[in-house]
């Protein structure tokens, strides 16, 4: 999952970069590997700063001051294609036609065909393994076809409409055309989120516009009138006007339900559903299931303990429903980020221990019910169950707000290989055994869907592929799944900095590390010179201009 952001200030000479940076820090939970900002100055020049690392490590006052202009695009990255190499950090830039900057959240499934098309037909050079670079080049190629000296909104809609026919998969995108404006569009199934908001100062005065993956950015920056970009819709914002068009209105709208389970911030509202409320509902629904299973097993629990952070909202609701005390038995180190989206199994496991500490007094001689939002690889559950037992828990039962995850994700979550998933090929008792729990209780899929859908009944479908194995875009078959599985594990072997390498140690992936690792076969970003600059200088350099 990545976070995308676009900002257009009414003042051409304004400083968009610092606001984009603040916005990206609010989207940090969507991607911790790399981040970047590109702004456009008054003369139509782009200024760029991007690097591996978290927002707080990549940007400082000095680097932001080099990013001139009242319009810009930002990105936080969690890689799902290619590698976590610096060269694949976004936003991406192509100079032709018109000067385009591009940020993408999602994952494409017909990259092989797109690559062949871009090579053989469009004659466009692709420099990385990133699917987002392909997407940008399809867009650029379609714009090029207009053959115009200056383009208008109609041309852009035509280009995006063509892209929506060519490209398969999940994509929520924000783009910027030099000296023209910012653009957002969303795939026809609306799998990944993106919305828009406006800010008038004073109320009737000139307007600033924002595109963002999540509404929390709008709330925190004084924007209002949040509106989701509709599936298959494109919105173009220039200083003169806002223009929008449904380019593919007929596909099934199926936002990814995992956004509500885990990815999005609780204080965001996605497609009309408060993430917070949906998590409360997940807790309520799960409580009923827990009650049934405990009665059937003739078991009692003394205390409900959430697995911080994401499960807290649901766990509290569940505890209240069951009238069992809720206790914060695990204390979270606020300086350790999300472990699931860290690269490399070793790094993830180590960081669960660094992130969570069990307070013995809440566990000693108790039958504890640990509540988590999801069990994916089982990394977190294995570690925390052991921790609970180490500090004296008598019995450890685990309840998950999501059903067992047994299928690959191909739409922007890094779960390429079912073999990595702890529920794959296992029954519920076998999962309990694998993670060391006395019992595991899962939410059912209908209950999970109801937890979200009740707040917006117009949402008739969701992407639930990781639970059901049904892929809403079509085009995902056994051959494809085994191909991405092999490709990703080959990548892991071939490249340091790739998405799933066990050998990428925490130290190597330290925040702010933005150079290639020793001996690594890593593509170097085109617009950067590694050797002459220190990491800080690199991050501080306005690169494209
Ligand atoms: O079974 P796993 O592969 O471990 O994945 C699932 C766990 O990972 C996530 O936590 P994470 O630490 O990423 O973030 P959080 O602090 O938002 O809960 C999620 O909330 C689960 O706790
Ligand atoms: N998680 C995402 O949205 C990733 C975007 C894109 N597929 C990349 O790997 O950079
Ligand atoms: Mg968690």
Question: Describe it for me?
Answer:
There is one protein chain. With 545 residues, the chain is of the alpha+beta class. The protein folds into two domains: 3-254, Aminohydrolase, N-terminal nucleophile (Ntn) domain (Glutamine Phosphoribosylpyrophosphate, subunit 1, domain 1, 4-Layer Sandwich), CATH 3.60.20; 273-462, Rossmann fold. Helix content is 31%, strand content 21%. The strands form five sheets. Strands 3-2-4-1-10-9-11 form a seven-stranded antiparallel sheet. Strands 5-6-7-8-12-13 form a six-stranded antiparallel sheet, with helices on one face. Strands 16-19-20-21 form a four-stranded parallel sheet, with helices on both faces. Helix 9 packs across helix 10. The protein is globular. The model is unreliable at 493-521, 528-534 and 539-545 (pLDDT under 50). The site of magnesium ion (MG) has 4 residues, from loops. The site of 1-O-pyrophosphono-5-O-phosphono-alpha-D-ribofuranose has 19 residues, from helix 12.
